[in-house]
Design goal:
This protein has about 160 residues and is mainly α. It is built from four helices and two strands. The radius of gyration is 45 Å and the shape is elongated.
Length: about 160
């Protein structure tokens, strides 16, 4: 199978068909007309290919005026190309919130009561505190807006200070 054509659908050029092709070619028929005369599964392109392989070349067709339709190529004038501006595919990030320095903690100040991790809410600081053995404990102080830690533990986490 060649190019999706079944073997039984392919046309085979027998010696009789080649002689008929030469006779029709010499009679001045076009390749489309020759293909129609040969019938079967012969296409115009098959006729053109066979004529090329057997070395027959077609000269100017009678009735066609080759020189009268030719015009010299026009001089090309370069046109300015429009400037294309490509819009970004994403929205720019909103400006970052300025860093608010956390208030200093006075040594010995009690920050909050420690609470079990499972009892925390969105407003509780989740900084790990000493474990008493029964449940995991966290700081529990009021956390900064949209952050998991209170001001003191935020300072510790960002600056590496001792808790």
């Amino acid at each position: 199978m060649r190019h999706g054509v079944k073997k039984e659908d392919q046309f085979v050029w027998s010696d009789e068909r080649v002689q008929q092709l030469r006779k029709l070619y010499d009679a001045g028929l076009s390749c489309s007309e020759i293909a129609a005369e040969l019938g079967g599964n012969v296409s115009r392109n098959a006729v053109i290919g066979k004529l090329h392989r057997i070395g027959l070349k077609r000269g100017p067709m009678p009735g066609r005026k080759r020189g009268s339709t030719f015009t010299a190529p026009r001089e090309r004038v370069a046109k300015p190309r429009p400037v294309v501006v490509i819009a970004p595919r994403f929205k720019p990030a909103p400006p970052a919130k300025p860093w608010v320095d956390a208030p200093a903690v006075v040594p010995g100040q009690v920050l909050a009561t420690r609470i079990p991790l499972l009892e925390t809410h969105k407003h509780h600081c989740r900084w790990p505190a000493a474990d008493d053995g029964s449940a995991r404990m966290v700081c529990g102080a009021q956390s900064l807006p949209d952050l998991p830690y209170c001001a003191h533990h935020m300072r510790v986490s960002c600056r590496g200070e001792a808790a």
